[in-house]
């Protein structure tokens, strides 16, 4: 199963200048609990935004740079090849950035989205979720507090089954 996991603002903003725009500790905890022990697929810029590889996860990096190397990581040049490197009977996660989410949308079975209830200036965006293709199956609203400057919601979408014509 391929799951996209992201945090995006109400205007679909993901980040600016290869950085997150907000700090939501509970979102980080959720990301860690869902992705630990799994393959995570990301673009090169997303990988390079980390201070070091994320522990207890297999990193699959997509890049057009044919000589790119990252110690202990799998490097490929397409979303299709990235998915092929993941175990078939396990959940694998697409973790960004914006272009990788767009490329992965047709291959994904589930979306775990944190919606930050604010609008931000950004240069990377999450693709539109087409309601003809996706069903919202769970939502959990969280109120801002001393550690979270914005209200946010955890949302889970699953791909709708295609009905025969």
UniProtKB/TrEMBL annotation:
It catalyses: (6S)-5,6,7,8-tetrahydrofolate + NADP(+) = 7,8-dihydrofolate + NADPH + H(+). Keywords: NADP, One-carbon metabolism, Oxidoreductase. GO terms for molecular function: dihydrofolate reductase activity; NADP+ binding. Pathway: Cofactor biosynthesis; tetrahydrofolate biosynthesis; 5,6,7,8-tetrahydrofolate from 7,8-dihydrofolate: step 1/1. It is an enzyme of class 1 (oxidoreductase). InterPro entries: DHFR, DHFR-like_dom_sf, DHFR_dom. One of its GO terms (cellular component) is cytosol. It comes from the Bacteria. Residues 1-159 form the DHFR domain. GO terms for biological process: dihydrofolate metabolic process; folic acid metabolic process; one-carbon metabolic process; tetrahydrofolate biosynthetic process. This is Dihydrofolate reductase. It comes from Flavobacterium flevense. The gene is dfrA.
């Amino acid at each position: 199963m391929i799951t996209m996991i992201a945090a995006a603002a109400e205007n679909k903003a993901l980040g600016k200048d290869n950085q997150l725009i907000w700090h939501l500790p509970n979102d980080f905890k959720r990301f860690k609990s869902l992705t630990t022990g799994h393959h995570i697929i990301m673009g090169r810029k997303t990988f390079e935004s980390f201070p070091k590889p994320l522990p207890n996860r297999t990193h699959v990096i997509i890049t057009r740079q044919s000589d790119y190397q990252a110690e202990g990581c799998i490097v490929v040049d397409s979303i299709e090849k990235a998915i092929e490197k993941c175990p078939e009977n396990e959940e694998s996660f697409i973790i960004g950035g914006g272009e990788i989410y767009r490329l992965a949308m047709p291959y994904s079975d589930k979306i775990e989205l944190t919606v930050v209830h604010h609008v931000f200036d950004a240069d990377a965006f999450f693709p539109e979720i087409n309601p003809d293709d996706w069903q919202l199956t769970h939502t959990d609203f969280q109120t801002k507090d001393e550690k979270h400057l914005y209200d946010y919601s955890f949302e889970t979408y699953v791909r709708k089954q295609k009905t025969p014509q």
